[in-house]
Design a protein that fits this description.
Blueprint (H helix, E strand, L loop, with lengths): L9 H12 L6 E8 L2 E7 L9 E7 L5 E8 L7 E5 L8 E8 L8 E10 L2 E6 L7 E8 L8 E7 L5 E9 L2 E7 L5 E9 L2 E8 L1 E10 L2 E4 L3
Antiparallel strand pairs: 1-2, 2-3, 3-4, 5-6, 6-7, 7-8, 9-10, 10-11, 11-12, 13-14, 14-15, 15-16
Length: about 220
């Protein structure tokens, strides 16, 4: 299953191509997000095309070129996805990273969520929880409900081999589970449409695309 968030922004795709050209010969692009004139990038220097081992920051010059301004070693974390989201509602975008690793208490290598702030030229840890949403395989972020920050939506695999959608919101110094869906054979695509409305494409005997909302702790189908 691959969770897809559609984007029709051709400028972002063009800028991303330009950003890849700024990488060194031994660096393989893994994931990136671009905010105005700053780009945050995970690269692999080991030849791995799935997981990265370094975090880079680029600043865009007046001529449109990208100048490397910061590097951080992510060896052992296996980062593979990066998003920008104001998770706590303070008006500043946080860096939300998917990594794959073990922890001291959990020796199974699986996906974990790390959140950082990039402040005054330094990467600062904000939240590095070891367990959220069970065994999840992808996430998206966005403003789904009016709760003072953006939500994180996870596609998680159940023990029975099904998919389930979890919706979390930042609360105090961690995350609170707002809602979860029923189980589906395969959740293909999730997209936040507007306040308390998301579209989800899933398989349940056949393929469906329907509108959902959060209600009483559950992600439920909207009955129009």
């Amino acid at each position: 299953m691959v969770l897809t968030l559609l984007c029709s922004c051709s400028r972002i795709r063009t800028t991303e191509d330009e950003l890849r050209n700024a990488l060194q010969e031994n660096e393989i692009w893994i994931a990136s997000v671009i905010s105005e004139d700053t780009a945050y990038v995970f690269v692999s220097t080991t030849g791995d095309k799935v997981y990265g081992d370094r975090f880079l920051v680029f600043s865009q010059e007046k001529d449109g070129s990208w100048e490397r301004s910061y590097e951080n070693d992510f060896s052992g974390l296996k980062p593979w996805k990066l998003a920008l989201s104001d998770v706590d509602g303070d008006g500043t975008k946080d860096l939300v990273a998917a990594v794959r690793k073990t922890t001291f208490y959990d020796k199974e290598e699986r996906n974990r969520l790390f959140i950082f702030d990039y402040v005054e030229g330094k990467l600062v840890k904000k939240w590095t929880g070891s367990d959220i949403a069970g065994s999840w395989e992808d996430f998206i972020t966005g403003d789904l409900v009016d709760a003072g920050g953006e939500e994180i939506l996870f596609i998680s695999n159940t023990k029975e081999g099904m998919d389930r959608l979890f919706v979390y919101h930042w609360f105090d110094f961690g995350f609170l589970l707002l809602a979860q869906s029923e189980d589906y054979e395969d959740i293909i695509q999730v997209k936040i449409v507007k306040e308390n409305r998301l579209s989800m494409t899933y398989r349940k005997e056949k393929e469906y695309k329907k509108l959902f909302m959060l209600e009483n702790g559950f992600v439920t189908e909207v009955k129009d």
